[in-house]
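Running this now, will post back.
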Amino acid sequence: MLRRVNSALFEAPLGARIQVVAEAQSNNGVNDARFEYAGQILPRQTILGLPGCSFTVAASSERLEAGVVFDPGAPGAARYDLFEVENGVKSNLKKFVRSSDGSILISFAIDPVFVTAAFKTVAKKKRPGRKKTATKAAKKTAKKTTRGAKKPAARRRTAAKRKASRKSPR
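Update: finished.
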């Protein structure tokens, strides 16, 4: 799968099989494109009813170029968009050319990405001697029950002091 890095560069896993199609809009029914990858002209293919190509990502950075055909009578708004096809689903590559641009070429580089085992998730090990932290509710309950214990001894009124204060005249 292609991943856009910037407008001129995409990345894909080394050896991945990529399919790209060109789709015309407002081009008076003309939908024709030819593709070249890594300096090699790719065989014409029809993918999802659109002109397209298939290629394998090379070990070095290479260019993909799509040469398109505009109808001479097409308006300036006529355009071609490039899409990647994966499992029968089109993903817009956000690469296009308009007939008013004066160009018939859509081009960008594809860098290979080496997929390693670093993408696997590793279960975290528990640290010995480390206790779990209490939840908010448990902390709140602990605060309520220990509030009285935090007061200084001089301020605490014991049952005996309360009884004595009731008996003394005011």
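The domain at 3-116 is CATH 2.60.40 (Immunoglobulin-like). More later if anyone needs it.
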